[in-house]
């Protein structure tokens, strides 16, 4: 069997980027939540908020550490596996990705240390300010990354000279046509991730009857936030979809598994798309609904996948099902947020065991939604890396062989399996130690100014 | 296109050259702890070794990431030829750095599994150091390129010559690590570190003597540069040797801080000698700095941000080292 370096490189990138993405998407949301809690602590002077903040800061430290470790790998992938792409786009992506690194270091140098180790050593106001700056810093970091990604989806502000993109308009390139949609969609996804993890963990503490009153307050506050953010995300997601329809119609056609350009397109609830036959099997759908959603008219015309020749189509089953999984998770999140509102009376949300157990499970939902959402947008733009301009095959490192790619793919999977099994295991120990442990403060442990030394739990 | 008024390429070359030597010196001594780790006489010594670098190591590694990202922005050709050419080596480097980084975090929190984290730290550090040395060797060897693309094989970077440079850097980092430990420890740990310095110095000098004799044969350009006429760059190896002698004397005299400074001197002059050998080629043997540089407006766009951030990182780094100055004692730390 011939090993295809293109396929293996795509699998490797999907693997390392998916693995990496789950950490920042959580820490970005959690950083805002921590800033909120320390804001409350500063305003009310109530030590219980301090305790809650200290607990979540420990969780933040561990996950942030994991994100940094997996992020180092990312910054080398473009060169090792996609060197033609790296070279051609370097005039734009080089500075953009460097600014991300610079932001991250600046954040780490200036404020992370104060947030992680400054409690009790700096005034509460300064501590709150550090937490706020860390949360803003995480957003600036994601700003650069999403700008880079959006530019690859909707390239702008550049012109091609001798095989190199040259930036002629920085602002048009950075704030390209899909940037704000993608950025808001991701920002809300981060809030949802942070929110549902906090809700799930709080629910677990309530079930375990540990520090119940504090976690009930945390849960209550989080449910209010989710009630606003979850429906808002559906709205923003819809706008992002319409933007995609404008710039990448084939991707939207694949999301809906709509092969022919036609009117009155049904919204498919179930189907098995068959790329070979260029049609669907076992379709179950709501008539004309996709036309309504995408064009806001019952008989609106929706472009079909067949507008593109077979070899320029994305993998339709993957895009179609990833999209459905993402939407299903989104709907579940809205339902849980609304259930939380219904159970407000007599604080039933903190007593109903079904609801609490459900919330525990729901802490995984945003991660599933985020990953499947990224699969939609990344697989959906195939075969292009820079949409409409550079294909994945053109972007690949010319000297890369299938054997080399397979070696590192297996290698990365092995390394990540070891390292993140240890990380996930340790994270559960930090959470189990709980808010009670966050109160004890062993100063000697904190000599190192590194993320994980902010956590108190033992490894074994 | 109008020519820019001021060519930023050399500003960027200076920034990246500075970043690389900062990285080599700073991560060098903490990688050195890992290389020497399993040779330490006791668990107590290992605690001291790790505590001596724990507050600063991840700050040290930021220079690597900054260098990588800066390279893509300022000299994309270097990035897009080195990484494919060193594909397997880059993986080993990253895997090594990840394992040792995680070992740093978990060793202090582990009890029964501590020996596993010891090994992860030692092997990860050694592999990372070796891979970095091999990268230096591959740079001296040069890269097979066509039309701005790497066209050589997967293991061109692994030759007898690069194995030697790899071992050379492992020995060099071990020497930096040992002299750092002399400065930061006391009692039996310090005595052990003292005993390491002379054999390590001998190994480093031997390997570098072989590399120096071998390099002109590997690359005629280097031979031409060094031996065609009398040149001021001859001062660099002389100064490096002077530092080696200074190191030897300071160990004889049982000095504590001087050996580390002398070792850094050896590294700096050797590094300058390497740069002088290849200047202005950054992807030898075909591409110079100017040919590998990105567009002027891209260099400028990033420079504005870096000029603001680099001083802050430097101040923060200096402050961290100041806070954690002095000897490391076994009872202060985290275990």
TrEMBL record, chain A:
Lineage: Bacteria, Pseudomonadati, Pseudomonadota, Gammaproteobacteria, Alteromonadales
Record's subcellular location: Cell inner membrane; Cell membrane
Similarity comment text for this entry: Belongs to the cytochrome ubiquinol oxidase subunit 1 family.
Membrane topology: Multi-pass membrane protein
Keyword Cell membrane: yes
First-listed, main subcellular location of the protein, grouped into a coarse class: membrane
Residue intervals passing through the bilayer: 12-41, 53-76, 96-118, 125-146, 186-206, 218-236, 318-343, 364-384, 404-427
Keyword Metal-binding part of the UniProt annotation: yes
Domain of life per record: Bacteria
Protein name: Ubiquinol oxidase subunit I, cyanide insensitive
Keywords, comma-separated and alphabetical: Cell membrane, Electron transport, Heme, Iron, Membrane, Metal-binding, Transmembrane, Transmembrane helix, Transport
Location of region: Disordered: 438-460
PANTHER family on file: CYTOCHROME BD MENAQUINOL OXIDASE SUBUNIT I-RELATED, CYTOCHROME D UBIQUINOL OXIDASE
Automatic annotation (TrEMBL), chain B:
Transmembrane stretches, start-end: 12-40, 85-103, 115-140, 160-183, 195-214, 226-248, 260-281, 301-324
Membrane topology label: Multi-pass membrane protein
Pfam families: Cyt_bd_oxida_II
Keywords: Cell membrane, Membrane, Transmembrane, Transmembrane helix
Intracellular or extracellular location(s): Cell membrane
UniProt cross-references to InterPro entries, sorted A to Z: Cyt-d_oxidase_su2
Record keyword Signal present: no
Signal peptide: none
PANTHER family reported for this sequence: CYTOCHROME BD2 SUBUNIT II
Family named by the database record: Belongs to the cytochrome ubiquinol oxidase subunit 2 family.
Protein name per Swiss-Prot or TrEMBL: Quinol oxidase subunit ii transmembrane protein
The species this protein was found in: Idiomarina baltica OS145
């Amino acid at each position: 069997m011939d090993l295809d370096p293109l396929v293996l490189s795509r699998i490797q990138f999907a693997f390392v980027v998916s693995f990496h993405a789950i950490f920042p998407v959580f820490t970005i949301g959690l950083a805002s939540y921590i800033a909120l809690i320390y804001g409350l602590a500063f305003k009310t002077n109530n030590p219980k908020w301090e305790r809650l903040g200290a607990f979540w800061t420990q969780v933040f430290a561990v996950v942030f550490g994991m994100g940094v470790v997996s992020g180092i790998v990312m910054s080398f992938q473009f060169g090792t596996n996609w060197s033609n792409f790296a070279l051609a786009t370097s005039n734009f992506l080089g500075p953009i990705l460097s600014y991300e690194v610079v932001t991250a270091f600046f954040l780490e140098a200036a404020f992370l240390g104060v947030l992680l180790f400054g409690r009790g050593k700096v005034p509460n106001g300064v501590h709150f300010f550090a937490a706020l700056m860390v949360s803003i810093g995480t957003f600036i970091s994601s700003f650069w990354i999403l700008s880079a990604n959006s530019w690859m989806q909707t390239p702008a502000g550049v012109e091609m000279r001798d095989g190199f993109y040259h930036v002629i308009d920085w602002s048009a390139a950075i704030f390209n046509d899909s940037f704000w949609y993608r950025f808001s969609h991701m920002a809300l996804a981060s809030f949802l991730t942070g929110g549902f993890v906090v809700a799930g963990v709080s629910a677990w503490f309530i079930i375990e009857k540990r520090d119940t009153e504090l976690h009930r307050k945390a849960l209550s506050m989080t449910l209010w936030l989710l009630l606003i953010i979850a429906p808002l995300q559906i709205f923003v997601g819809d706008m992002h979809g319409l933007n995609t329809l404008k710039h990448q119609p084939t991707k939207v056609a694949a999301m809906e598994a709509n092969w022919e350009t036609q009117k009155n397109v049904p919204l498919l609830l179930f189907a098995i798309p068959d790329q070979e036959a260029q049609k669907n099997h076992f379709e179950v759908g709501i008539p004309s609904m996709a036309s309504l959603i995408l064009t806001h008219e019952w008989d609106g015309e929706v472009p079909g996948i067949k507008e593109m020749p077979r070899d320029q189509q994305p993998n339709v089953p993957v895009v179609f099902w990833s999209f459905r999984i993402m939407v299903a998770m989104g709907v579940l999140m809205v339902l849980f947020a609304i259930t939380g509102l219904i159970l407000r009376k007599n604080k039933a949300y903190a007593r109903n065991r079904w609801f609490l157990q459900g919330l525990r499970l729901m802490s995984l939902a945003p991660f599933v939604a985020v990953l499947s959402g990224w699969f939609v947008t990344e697989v959906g733009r195939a075969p292009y890396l820079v949409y409409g301009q550079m294909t994945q095959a053109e972007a690949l490192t010319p000297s890369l062989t299938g054997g080399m790619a397979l070696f590192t793919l297996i290698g990365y999977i092995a390394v990540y399996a070891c390292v993140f099994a240890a990380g996930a295991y340790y994270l559960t120990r930090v959470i189990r130690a709980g808010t009670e442990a966050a109160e004890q403060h062993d100063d000697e442990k904190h000599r190192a100014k590194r993320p994980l030394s902010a956590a108190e739990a033992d490894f074994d | 296109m109008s020519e820019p008024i001021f060519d930023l390429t050399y500003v960027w070359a200076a920034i990246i050259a500075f970043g690389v030597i900062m990285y080599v010196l700073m991560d060098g001594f903490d990688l050195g702890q890992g290389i020497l780790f399993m040779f330490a006489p006791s668990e107590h010594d290992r605690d001291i070794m790790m505590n001596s670098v724990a507050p600063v190591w991840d700050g040290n590694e930021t220079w690597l990431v900054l260098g990588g990202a800066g390279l893509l922005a300022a000299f994309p050709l270097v990035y897009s030829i080195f990484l494919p050419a060193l594909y397997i080596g880059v993986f080993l480097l990253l895997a090594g750095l990840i394992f040792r980084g995680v070992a740093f975090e978990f060793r202090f929190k582990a009890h029964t599994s501590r020996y596993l984290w010891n090994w992860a730290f030692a092997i990860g550090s050694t592999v990372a150091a070796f891979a970095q040395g091999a990268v230096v060797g591959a740079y001296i060897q040069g890269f097979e390129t066509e039309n701005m693309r790497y066209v050589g094989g997967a293991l061109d970077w692994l030759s007898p010559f690069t194995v030697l440079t790899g071992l050379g850097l492992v020995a060099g980092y071990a020497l930096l690590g040992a002299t750092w430990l002399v400065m930061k420890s006391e009692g039996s740990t310090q005595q052990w570190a003292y005993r390491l310095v002379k054999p390590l110095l001998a190994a480093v000098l031997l390997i570098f003597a072989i590399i120096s004799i071998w390099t002109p044969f590997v690359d005629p350009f280097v031979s031409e540069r060094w031996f065609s006429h009398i040149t001021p760059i001859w001062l660099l190896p002389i100064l490096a040797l002077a530092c080696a002698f200074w190191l030897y004397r300071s160990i004889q005299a049982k000095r504590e801080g001087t050996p580390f400074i002398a070792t850094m001197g050896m590294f700096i002059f050797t590094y300058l000698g390497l740069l002088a050998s290849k200047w202005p080629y950054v992807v030898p043997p075909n591409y110079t700095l100017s040919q590998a540089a990105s567009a002027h407006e891209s260099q400028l766009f990033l420079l504005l941000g870096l000029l603001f951030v680099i001083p802050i990182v430097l101040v923060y780094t200096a402050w961290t080292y100041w806070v954690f100055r002095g000897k490391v004692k076994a009872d202060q730390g985290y275990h």
